[in-house]
Model the fold of this input.
Amino acid sequence: QVQLVESGGGLVQAGGSLRLSCAASGSTLSMNTVGWYRQAPGKQREQVAVIFSGGIANSAAAVKGRFAISRDNAKNTVYLQMDSLSPEDTAVYYCHILHTNAWGQGTQVTVSS
Done:
């Protein structure tokens, strides 16, 4: 059974940084397409970044240049480095494995102005 555990969220001031982690068990992340998504109150869940099994990564236009997704194969963990955070980035952030449609429980990110 695949389990994803996100961590690293918290409260940060605008302009600050956070690094989210997504640790997996039951699946090898390097062999999968893994995405980071976020859902703000009253809004639909949206993808913010994705990393493919070959290592190519993409990010959404809203976070491009500020967020970066990466992967540590030895730790079977995917990261989301978030810089220059703004209040609009406040949301619950989730990681997701495309092939198995596995989701983590989410981690709250709150950015104060």
Summary: The first strand starts at residue 3 and ends at 7. DSSP finds no helices and eleven strands in the chain. The mean pLDDT is 97.
